[in-house]
Amino acid sequence: MNRSRPSTTARRALPRRGDPAARAIRELRRAIALIQAEGGTPARVTRNRAGELLRRLADLPVAMLVANNRGRYVDANAAAAVLTGYGHAELLRRSVWDLTLDAHRGRGQAMWRAFLARGRMAGWYPLRRKSGRIVKARYVAIANVLPGLHVSVLATPAIVLRFERRRED
Questions:
Q1: pLDDT per residue over 46-74, tens digit each?
Q2: What spatial distance separates the first Cα and last Cα of the chain, rounded to whole Å?
Q3: For the chain, what are the domain ranges?
Q4: Is the dihedral of CA 77, 148, 11, 127 positive or negative?
Q5: Please, what is the Cα angle at 115 between 34 and 79, to 5 degrees?
Q6: What is the DSSP letter of 102?
Q7: β-sheet bridge partners, residue 169
């Protein structure tokens, strides 16, 4: 099997409790609960909701990208900018497909459809950085955290290792 191909299955639905992706998912769930408890009017736009999610999750050591149903990014945290090499404003002009390797685009689109149908997906995915360099990232993605908003939490092996070392200290 080609190790750079995106994983369509994961050993578990969510990552282990101690890693940064698990922490991000727990914080994401808390943020969603707070947003839902706050209510809101139908006029509240998708961009504002995505921004609210990320404001509540800004200090996490993992990249978080919020995409709409078409896979276009509507918000991202600072770690996502570092991981991808794109600035925040540049990411908001990009989509999932801009970070997907050309050779994997068809498979990536099939994975996107499967992700929206299943509601969540996890595994490893090779991302194309702005520089063209490929970086392999562990991801956990949850569809419709708010209607039409899908969150991907990504961490490279280096991020996971730093987090685990910090926990051991």
A1: 556 666 666 666 666 788 899 999 999 98
A2: 37
A3: 20-168
A4: negative
A5: 55
A6: G
A7: none
Determine the Cα–Cα distance for residues 145 and 132; give it in Å rounded to an integer: 30
Residue 153 has pLDDT above 50, yes or no: yes
Q: How many CA atoms lie within 13 A of 69 on its CB side?
A: 5
Helix 20-38 and helix 46-56: axis angle, to 10°?
Answer: 130
| Amino acid occupying residue 157 | P
Fold of 20-168: Beta-Lactamase (3.30.450)
Q: What token pair was written down for 120? A: 């969540």
Separation of CA 84 from chain center? 12
Q: Residue written as tokens 């991302």?
A: 127
> How far is the C-alpha of 95 from the C-alpha of 41, rounded, in Å?
27
Look-up of token digits 């990411």: 91
DSSP structure class, residue 7: P
Q: Which two tokens stand for residue 8?
A: 């369509």
What percent of the chain has a predicted confidence (pLDDT) above 90? 33
